[in-house]
Design a protein that fits this description.
190 residues; alpha/beta; Dihydrofolate Reductase, subunit A; eight-stranded mixed beta sheet; 10 strands; 28% strand; globular; RibDG_C; Dihydrofolate reductase; 5-amino-6-(5-phosphoribosylamino)uracil reductase activity; Riboflavin_Biosynth_HTPR; DHFR-like_dom_sf
Length: 190
Amino acid sequence: MRKIISFMHISLDGFVAGPNGEMNWIKLGEEIFDHVGKRIGETDTALYGRVTYQMMENYWPTAGDKPDATKHDIKHSKWYNKIHKVVLSKTMKDAGLADTTIISDNLSDKINEIKQQAGGEVLLFGSPTATHSLIQQNLIDGYWLFVNPIILGRGIPLFVDIKDKIKLNLLTTRQFTCGVTELNYTVDRQ
């Protein structure tokens, strides 16, 4: 069975974005790009909320073709263009969207159908609202978190309206030279 893994940058105090969606506090660099690139290279499906999908779709399809494209831009653009995208949205329609599935209702049933399909893990990129919806329906199987060395104090939290405890098992950790710490958890279903 495929697993849904939430991939998120997070502040030390649990926020995934500032109060207005700001993400300028996230530390990135070649070391993190290379590390993330290895794992996502094994993924054939990405899951997004509408806002994140539209951001991605406005940049990644042609990012690798630009004259000033970085190594990361080229690699990620190629990956983005070949994967299947699943978008959670009540307002988008999938008319003409290449290799993209829109889920607008019956979230639990449709995500469970995706989990039954052949393929590797499905990475849920950013998308705090979509993540909240999946958490509330117990559909996330793991968390791949990049804890940034900052306390925001306020913003959009990763975890809201949690009804029951979610037990996690730590799989791996990694410290990056920029101060970011990777925490890779699986949800303990027992």
